[in-house]
Design a protein that fits this description.
Radius of gyration: 19 Å
Shape: globular
Strand order of the largest sheet: 4-3-2-1-5-6-7-12-10-11
Oligomer: single chain
CATH topology: Inosine-uridine Nucleoside N-ribohydrolase, Chain A
Structural class: alpha/beta
CATH architecture: Alpha-Beta Complex
Bound molecules: beta-D-ribofuranose, calcium ion
Number of helices: 13
Distance between the termini: 34 Å
CATH class: Alpha Beta
Largest sheet: 10 strands, mixed
Strand content: 15-25%
Amino acid sequence: MNAPKKVIIDCDPGIDDALALMLALSSPELEILGITVVCGNVPAHMGAENALKVLKMMGRMDIPVFIGEQSPLVRTYVDAMDTHGDDGLGESHYPQVTEIRPSEGAVQFLARTLRDAAEAPDEKKISIIALGPMTNIASLIRQYPDSLAGLDELVSMGGSYKSHGNCSPVAEYNYWCDPHAAKEVYEAFSTLTGKQIHMVGLDVTREIVLTPNLLEYMQCLNPERGEFIRRITRFYFDFHWKQEGIIGCVINDPLAVAYFIDRTMCSGFSAHTEVETEGICLGQTVVDDHDFWKREKNSVILTKTDSMRFMKFFFTRVIGACEEQVLEGLMGRVMR
Ligand code: BDR
Ligand code: CA
């Protein structure tokens, strides 16, 4: 196997962020240098506490957690506790972790880590998997523009191309929460680095639905992790039923992690993308798929995924199911 890729996970845990962290922590392809937390689903301090709860459950308290930006660049902060519960983990109310504590200074941690990697060959540079609003990353670029020299790849869960929004008819929550940050980061990728943001948006994440059957199956195969997932997702299930009439819940963020590890998990195309910061389209990603603007292709827009493949990936890693159990369970019974 190749050397693990060095990553920082920037997130706002958040129920699906917690699942994404579990997946990342179960993946030997990743060396997680730190978890940076931004205000999003919940305030940054609460998100950091939740990241610690996941680390404790996974037995990985060696990974440092940093608290980042407490409010969006321009907009008034709007959390998503209606979706994620008053503790951000589906009102599971797991006890606070006291053995280790988060540090302040997420943006400084990002800057330092990227700066140290600036001279490194590409395979040793640092990638960021961004699972929340892009405020920490926009602040990084504003305060330390040179730090992108140490960046390998940026995968962002956010935005949508053809799919409808989840905060307005056109906007996805992470980019809607801080559209100015998202705009600045996409702009930076058009002008500063020549690299592309991998946009894992609602077009693909909407395909990833955790159902009651899958949850039951997880609990049978791995009672400890299954129980944790059941406790944190129950509230999410109720929300999806009331809001979208779905029995189950869309889990967005883990797909970004799966895609970072295995590029065949999603497919799409390169294009120039802009983010709207005003009016009724606030937070919308406008993807120039016909190249009208003749501008730098700053993004890879993911449009297709295979939910069965994703579930196999998740079950073998997070639940520790063997290939046969996954085939029998998912294909034979549970996903029918
Ligand atoms: C995104 O918004 C948050 O609520 C989720 O954690 C995910 O990152 C989906 O729109
Ligand atoms: Ca998130």
